[in-house]
Structure formats: C-alpha cells, structure tokens
C-alpha cells in the first residue's frame, strides 16, 4: 500500500515567518512558539500603529519591542530590514511604524560604526557620512537610502525629525539629513506647502529646509524653498512670480468673506479652487461657514480617495446632487485609484458603516473588492476560523472605531466567499464557559450566494457572531475540522491552555495557515514549513503566499516577490 505517493500528496513549501523551535507560553497560558527575529518583527510591524496598546501589551511595550527588533536586525541583516521598512511604507500601508523604524535603523548602524576600534578602516563617528555608502559592514544598502524610502508624503520629513529629536536630541546625523534631502525634491511642492505647512507643526517646511539644505530640483522649487523659510520666520516678502499656486491662493484669501460663497456658484469655481491648491479643509476655513452642497460640489473633483471616504455622510447631509455623487462613485470604484490611495481594506468598511446611504454601497463594495484583490480563490474545502475572543475587541487606533475582530471577520468572510467551498466559523471560549452544550462552542456563519461582502460583515456584526471570552483555538479545531483540505485561522494567536496543542488538533498533513492580526511575541503553532504557516497584516498582500505554498513552491517576503 502506498504511504507517501498518494493522490493528495503535495510537495511541502516553506514560508518566511518561521519559528525557532524555542517554546514559551501565550498570554493566555497556552503552548507558545518563538519566532525568529525577522518573523517576529514582520508580524509586529504590519499590525503596529505606533503608540497604540493592545489587549495584552501597552503601546510603550509594543514600541519598545519594535525598536529593539529593528536595532538588532539593522546590524545583523541590514538589507532585509531595509526591504521591510520600504515595503512597510508602500505595500504595507503602515506610515508611522515605517518612519520610526527607519530612524531606529540608522541609529543602530551608526552606533555600531562608532563602536569599532580606533584605527579600523570601518571606524566612523556617529553621524558621519561615508562616501562609499554608510554601512560599517559594507552593505550595498545606505542609511540615507533607507531614510528616503520611507518618506512618501510631504509632512513626513518633519515627522521623522520630530521623532529623532524627541528621542536623541537635536544633533541630526548626516545620513538622516541626506536621506531627507533625497526625498524633498519630489515631496515639497506648492500644494504640499499649503496643505501641510501649518503653525501646529513642530518642524515647519522652512525648518526642514534650513536643517538639511536640499538642492532644488528646478528653479521654481528654489523659490519655494526660500519662500518656505520666509514664511516660517514671519518675513513679509512678496511671493515669487514662479509660484503660481501660491499666488492663486493669495488672491482667494484677499477676497472679502461676504463675497466668497458667491464664487462657488459660478462655472469657474472648480478651476479657481484647483489652481489655488484648495483642500476641503482649507475651503471650509476660507468660507468661515458651513460646507453646503455648492461648496462640496466645487471641491469634490479635487479630492482624493481618502478624503472622499471620510466625507460620504457629509455629502449626503449637504444634499450633493446625484450627478456629482456619480463622479465620487467613479473615482472610488476605479481599481487604479484605490491602489494609488494605499488605503487599508478596513477604511472602506469604516466608510460603509459611517455612511449607510444606498447611493454609496455598491461603489464601496467595488472599492473593497479592489483592495482585496490578492485574496485567493482556493479549490476544495476550506475551514476558516475567525477569533472573536475578548482580546480581539481592541481598536487598531485610539478612536477604537475599527476592532481587530472587525478585520478578522472581513478577511475571513472575504476568503470564504472566494473559496470553492468554505465553512466560516466564529470561535472563542465564551459559549463553553456559559454552559452551552459541547457542540455549541463555535458558531458557523452561513455564507449567502452572491452576497455583498460589506453586507455580510454587517450581518456578522449585528447577528451575534462576536462571542467574547477566551481563545479556545484547539477545541474549535477539534469540533469544526471535518476532512477539510486546509484550515485558515484569523486570530491574535493568544490561545488558552488546552489538553492538546493547536497544531496537534488537526492532522499534520493538512495545511494550517494562521493570519495574525496583533503581532504578539508568541505564536500558537510552529510555522515556516511542514504545512504550518503564519502571515499577518492589515492588507491582503500576504494572501499571495497561499497558492504558492499549495503549488509546492517556497513563499518569500512580500517585497521579494
């Protein structure tokens, strides 16, 4: 009888988030597995909004663990860490973690360079710049390139400098300055100055320019740099003629307040606002009154995807016309616009919850589908377990509007809808502790054929599929696994103690994919090979690994594909 060469046999692929063999316990006392530093940092980075605590860790504890891992790997594996930080800001859509990580990366490498023995050809004082790169290990990755790679928006050079000076003082190393120099040519524009250079910022555009001395990319930018410095120091000098957007804004600002709203009713309103670099926030301040339908209709053509998502309810309340609403819908439903906006999938769900009007529902569904393009259509039978324990009832950000179990439900249902056949199940330990029968410790979610994903997530939220309690993952597997071809668990991995481990609760031959939404240190199962894999993040990027692994190929880090 054949034992290995069977119809269901497949080559075993490996995945990058790997455990070391070291053992520990989860925060709930269950069996825990330690990951290697790269895997631990990756899962933490893709779920960490800097300064935000979770159920089991304070914001400070998470930030400390993040910075320690970045410092360690910046020295031990600088090329990998540089790749992570660049991808984190772009493909991973995580802004603050990438900026803080780049600063810590450079700090660690400069300290390593400064600690080398005197006389060594690799010795460098902290803050010095090497002509052949600035890595003491002769890596081809320069510190300045890492800094430049995470600066994708015009307010971020100031953010990075504020982070650095708050932790390490006002002495700025040359690699940091030169990395910012490299980024400013593309970032500092007239529109960016009008949008981001406000008195509320600790580092104004003029401060950044005076500190790093960037070389202008063109003559107009040289004028802009000088004007930003004058503006910072309150010098009342004429705006250079080359800065046409600033002149257009100045003309609008000079208009009497009583005459401003009349401008919006004319056919030239959209052009005038666009030429003056008006955002919707600036327009509201300029009008010094409510944003009515005319105001919104004049500014909507200039608004990006994020601004549109934030204001759908405002459009409805102001009575924006159906014609203009169609313009909004066309932009939000455009996959290229969605990709360019780098919005996390949960942003579209949040917009749907905030603006339940039927005029936006189909559009937001299309946008969400575009944002989840990497969720695969898997053959065979799939068991999707969604962790709805109390530790998942934590907001990703300070306002708490979107919970981890919201994201878990969204990813779980999206995957279930695309699979050939799927059982999507909510699990925790609450029903068990409340004394329900042994078969009622989980709750299966019925997928509706052709149902909108947004509507399905709403039905999950309103219909009692958020259970609360502890994380009884092993028990859920034993009760729900019934010969499925694979298991996907969307969770924070903090399983409680059980008579059997999570990994032992289904056959070793069945692939088990863990989608981590919290980035804690301990995993609930081994990962990296042998049909046990862990992914993570608030985007759909890592879902690309599942088809690769099932084809017997090795999956790599997202920025290496």
Automatic annotation (TrEMBL):
Residues 24-380 form the TROVE domain. Keywords: Cytoplasm, Metal-binding, Ribonucleoprotein, RNA-binding. Pfam families: TROVE. Transmembrane segments: none annotated. Residues 18-28 have a biased composition (Low complexity). Its main location: cytoplasm. One of its GO terms (molecular function) is metal ion binding. The keyword Cell inner membrane does not apply. Residues 1-32, 110-141 are annotated as: Disordered. GO terms for cellular component: cytoplasm; ribonucleoprotein complex. Residues 122-137 have a biased composition (Basic and acidic residues). InterPro entries: TROVE2, TROVE_dom, TROVE_dom_sf, vWFA_dom_sf. It is found in: Cytoplasm. Belongs to the Ro 60 kDa family. This is TROVE domain-containing protein. The lineage of its organism: Bacteria, Bacillati, Actinomycetota, Actinomycetes, Kitasatosporales.
């Amino acid at each position: 009888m054949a034992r290995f060469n069977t119809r269901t046999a497949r080559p075993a692929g490996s995945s990058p988030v790997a455990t070391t063999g070291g053992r520990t316990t989860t925060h709930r006392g269950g069996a825990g597995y330690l990951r290697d530093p790269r895997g631990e940092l990756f899962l933490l980075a893709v779920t960490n909004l800097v300064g935000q605590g979770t159920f089991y860790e304070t914001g400070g504890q998470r930030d400390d663990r993040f910075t320690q891992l970045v410092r360690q790997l910046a020295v031990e594996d600088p090329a990998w860490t540089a790749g992570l930080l660049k991808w984190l800001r772009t493909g991973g859509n995580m802004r603050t973690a990438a900026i803080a990580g780049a600063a810590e990366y450079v700090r660690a490498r400069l300290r390593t360079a400064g600690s080398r023995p005197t006389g060594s050809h690799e010795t460098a004082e902290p803050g010095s710049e090497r002509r052949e790169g600035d890595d003491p290990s002769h890596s081809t990755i320069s510190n300045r390139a890492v800094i430049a790679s995470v600066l994708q928006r015009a307010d971020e050079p100031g953010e990075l400098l504020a982070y650095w000076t708050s932790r390490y003082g006002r002495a700025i190393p040359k690699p940091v300055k030169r990395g910012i120099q490299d980024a400013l040519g593309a970032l500092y524009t007239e529109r960016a100055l009008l949008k981001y250079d406000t008195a509320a910022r600790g580092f104004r555009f003029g401060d950044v320019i005076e500190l790093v001395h960037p070389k202008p990319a063109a003559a107009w930018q040289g004028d802009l740099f000088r004007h930003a410095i004058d503006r910072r120091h309150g010098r009342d000098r004429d705006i250079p003629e080359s800065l046409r957007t600033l002149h257009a804004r100045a003309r609008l600002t000079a208009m009497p307040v009583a005459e401003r709203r009349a401008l919006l009713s004319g056919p030239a309103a959209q052009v005038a606002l666009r030429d003056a670099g008006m955002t919707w926030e600036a327009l509201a301040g300029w009008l010094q009154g409510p944003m009515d339908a005319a105001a919104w209709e004049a500014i909507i053509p200039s608004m990006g995807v994020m601004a549109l998502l934030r204001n759908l309810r405002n459009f409805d309340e102001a009575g924006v016309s159906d014609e203009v609403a169609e313009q909004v819908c066309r932009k939000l439903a455009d996959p290229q616009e969605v990709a360019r906006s780098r919005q996390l999938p949960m942003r579209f769900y949040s917009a749907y919850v905030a603006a339940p009007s039927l005029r936006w529902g189909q559009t937001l569904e299309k946008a969400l589908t575009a944002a989840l393009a990497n969720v695969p259509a898997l053959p065979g039978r799939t068991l999707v377990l969604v962790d709805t324990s109390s530790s998942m009832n934590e907001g990703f950000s300070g306002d708490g509007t979107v919970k981890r179990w919201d994201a878990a439900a969204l990813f779980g249902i999206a995957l279930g809808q695309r699979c050939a056949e799927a059982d999507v199940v909510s699990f925790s330990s609450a029903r068990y502790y409340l004394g329900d029968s042994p078969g009622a410790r989980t709750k299966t979610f019925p997928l509706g054929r052709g149902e909108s994903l947004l509507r399905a997530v709403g039905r999950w939220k309103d219909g009692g599929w958020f259970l609360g309690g502890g994380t009884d993952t092993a028990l859920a597997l034993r009760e729900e696994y019934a010969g499925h071809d694979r298991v996907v668990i969307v969770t924070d991995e903090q399983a409680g103690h059980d008579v059997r481990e999570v990994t032992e609760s289904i056959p070793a031959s069945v692939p088990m994919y863990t989608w981590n939404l919290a980035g804690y240190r301990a995993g609930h199962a081994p990962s990296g090979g042998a049909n046990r894999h862990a992914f993570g993040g608030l985007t759909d990027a890592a879902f690309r690994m599942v088809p690769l692994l099932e084809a017997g190929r090795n999956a790599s880090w997202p920025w290496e594909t």
